[in-house]
Structure formats: C-alpha cells, structure tokens
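Below is how a single chain appears once it has passed through the pipeline. First comes the sequence as given, then the structure the pipeline wrote out for it. We keep one example in the README because the format questions we get most often are answered faster by looking than by reading.
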Amino acid sequence: MKDDDNPLAAVGVEAEDERIYRNLLRRPRATLPELAARTGHTMATLRHVLCRLESLGLATRMAGRPVRYVPTRPDVAVDALISRREEGLAQARLAARELLAETPRVENHAPEELVEVVQGQAAVVQRFTQLQQTATRELLVLDRPPYAQDPTEQNAAEMERLSHGLLVRGIYDASALEIPGKLRLAQESAAAGEQARVSPEVPMKLAIVDRETAILPLSTDASASADSAVIVHSSSLLDALVTLFEILWRSALPLPALGSPTRPADMPDPELFALLAAGLKDEAVARQLGVSLRTVHRRVSELMDRLGARTRFQAGLLAARRGWWDPEP
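Resulting structure:
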C-alpha cells in the first residue's frame, strides 16, 4: 500500500496524519526532532498532527525526556475507531427516526411522492443497497433476472443485515438458480439465516423493506439489465405488492440445502437431488455440477431407480416419504 493512499479516511484519519502514523509504525519511539528530520515537516506541524493522533488513539507519549511517541497497534486502534464510528452512525439513525416522527404523517409522502423512478444502473444499485441498510424489521425479496448487480457475487449488504438478526425471506425463481454459482450463493444466504424458497413462476423482481418501501425494475425482460427502477412508498400499491409476495411464499417450496447436517445418510447423490428439487432443468444441472448432459441423464436415471419412481414428480413424492425432503412450504 502506498504512503499517499488514505484508507483510514473512513474512520476519520486525515491523509497527512495517516502518513505520520505509518512513519511511527516503521520507526516507533521517535522524538519530535527525529520525526521532523524523517518527514520534512516543521516541529509546529508535527505537534498538531501528533495531538490529533493521540486524540484518535493512534499514538501515545512515553514518560521521560526527551518525549518519545509510540504508535498503537493498527488492529487495536482501528477497531476502536470503527466502534466509535458505528456508535455515531447508530445515533444518527435514531435521530433520523425521531425527525421523521416529528413530521406530520400527511407530509411524509405527498401523493406525487408515493412513486419514484430511479434512472441508471449505478443509481439503482445504490438505492437498493441503501434500502437494505435501513431495514430494521424484515426484508422480502423476489429474486429473478434482470439484475443490476453481478448475480454471481454474494449480496454483501444482505449478509451484513442477516448478521445483525434482520428477518429476510427470499423467493428464487428457478431460472435465477440456473445461473452458474447462483444456487450456491442462495444456499450461503440461507445458511446465514435467510428463509429461502423456490418457485417456477416468480413474475417480477422485487424487494420490500419493513413493508414500508418497495423497489422493482421497470423492465421484466430477463435479458435486459436493471438500469431503471421504481420506488413505491406506503400506499395501496405497496399493500398489493406485499400481498403478492405472501401468496407466492405460500406456494413456493423450501430451497434445498447442500451439505445439510440433517440430511439422511441414505440419500443417494444429494447434490444432484438438491438441484432437481430446486426446479432446475437438466441443462442447468449439468452446468452447476460441471458435467455433461449425458452424465446428468444417467445420474437422474440411477436416482429414480433407487426410489423406484417412473416420473420425476413421483420421485419427489417418494423422496418426501423417505424424509429426504420436505415439500411443505
């Protein structure tokens, strides 16, 4: 990392202060004249910088004469700064809630403000991330193309909210799980606490935050990118979207989990079974497993023979009877 980078700016450390801190880390127990000689700064400037470093907990003075400065270990110092910043952000969030409470209800959203249009892929991503970060009770998600973000990368904002105990319910369209690696990401989210289900017919992409705000793309074309979206605030339209989610939730099936510790030991080919139970077609299963379509056909045939099933539907029923999979939502 170069000296003129300033990664600690995120926790309130100015670029010049960080450079002096780095200098101290390389040569601790330096005196003021030694620092001046190494950095080219005047003694007066260094006094101000060191005073700021002390107030941030990045450096301390040693007893005795001449005065020497010792840097605090980076992991300890930065963790403390992050905690301080998080406390400040939490207080700001509470203040925002209090300010909203002071606003007359009729002015929270005027009729013309109940629906917003967000233009541009970057703006859509930013707004979606903001909505996830402000969720306090629950996040309801219909997951299907089109995507504004890379669908092969984990949703870091959701994972962060899950780690803080947010209730997240997600319904994945089977076509979304055909994207290479997407099923694994969905299972990772489920392992982190998301309540995940699968449906063959998710009509749109949608996210609802605390049943107060929703975001959905303007286009439902799966081949397009989500470069524009609609934000819907509390209204009868939002109520209808929540109702739609609940109807789909009741008819959706639980997302099969790979490597589940509760999976029966006698289940043959569990990875293949999980993909089939998720509703993926043979071509998509082959891509997920990294094998040929012919291999998938052979393994499916072996699985059905093991179950004594003539059709895939019958195989699902027989698997449920054996306790391999719970088809009840």
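The radius of gyration is 27 Å.

See the next section for the split statistics.
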